[in-house]
Each structure stands twice: as C-alpha cells, then as structure tokens.
C-alpha cells in the first residue's frame, strides 16, 4: 500500500515520525502535546458553530452549510488525535483525509460565496482536481526531496497565496482574513518542517517536546480564519445554488411544502 506512513513496515506496525515520544507504545501519553493540542480544533469548531447559530447584525442567520463546516473542521482535529494517539502505520489517512475534505468543502463554498460561481459542477470538478493532486503528490512523495520535511502540506500553503489575494480583491466581507490564514499557515509549516528536520537529521537534536504541536496550534487557527472568510448566508439562495442540481427532488418537495404552508 502506498498510503502508509512507512511503506517498509506492516500496515499495523507502530511508527514513530515525530520528535516527541515518551513511551514504547502509542497511547495518549506517548505524544502528549501532539495528541492533546488537537483539542484546539474541537474548541474552535464548537466556537464557530455557536457563532454560526447567532444572527448577524442585519438579521440573517448562517444556515446548515456553515454548521456543516464547523463540524467538518472538528473532524480534522479528531482524526489527528486518533493518529497521534495510536500511531499505527495504516492510520496516517486519519491525519490527511479530513483536512483534504475540509479544504475541498471550503473551496467549493468559497467559489460561490465570494467569486459568485453559481454552477455546481465546475466547483465539484475543481475540488476533485485538488484532492487528486494531493493524493498523487503523497504517492510520489519519495521522489521529492523537500517532501520529507513538508509532506503534502506545501500544496495547500502555496494555494493560499492566490486565494488570499483574490479574497482581498473580490470579497466584501473580512477581506483581510485570507492574509491572516496565510500568515498562520506560514508559521505552522515552519514548525512542521522544523520537527521533521530534527527527527531526520543526525546533526540536529530533537527537542523533548518537538515542534509538531505548534504546527497543530497555528494550522488549526489558520483553518478557523478560512471559516471566517465565508460571509453570512441567505438560506434559500445558497442552498438552491449549491445543491438543487444535485438533489432536485428534495428541493421540489421542500418548495411544495412551503407553498402549501403559505396558502394555509
């Protein structure tokens, strides 16, 4: 299997990829900082869900799309928590899959909410291309010298540059948020690469705590600002624009119920 943390080891072997390591087996105390800093994603996700349920100043409320984003954001931390706690070779996907899904979800809705690209299929196609690119780069990682220090995270980092500029030029809501997310991701990637360098290079001595936990804190905070980049939503317009062509039957039934309730 190519999607293993270490392709030379069995799928259920315990692997050690980070500086922080306090035990011979993986559990919540084997990498305490790497494990428990993932709770930060859950805290921020819960905060965003509470924020999304509040009405905006002009009386609008974010709909289920935003709530789904907050929940999906929390799964990023939960997947990473499981990976760092158990450390099985095959469980690396828990640390990569959920961030990819969150990134695809964000791109899909940002194209509509900010760039006003209404058609669903082009957005879905772009998200699939991004996910395929990430999977391909992960599979070819052994052939990329810099990959051993940054993994596939560099692709998301590079993609944030044009996204932040476009958001500043096109958005009318929190235009600065893209640059904040980019700055936080820059710091996060530096700490990620530092931890990898200390773990791989014999000339460098690993810190007892490592630096990977700082990657968690800065990257999760950067992801949170991506959520804040999406403006408040008009429920009907957004839901119809995003999903009506995928599930037209559900929307026709809903519209029929609304029409009958109005008449009543």
TrEMBL record:
Keywords: Membrane, Transmembrane, Transmembrane helix. The chain crosses the membrane at residues 35-53, 65-86, 92-112, 124-146, 152-169, 176-193, 213-230. This is Ceramidase. It comes from Emiliania huxleyi (strain CCMP1516). The lineage of its organism: Eukaryota, Haptista, Haptophyta, Prymnesiophyceae, Isochrysidales.
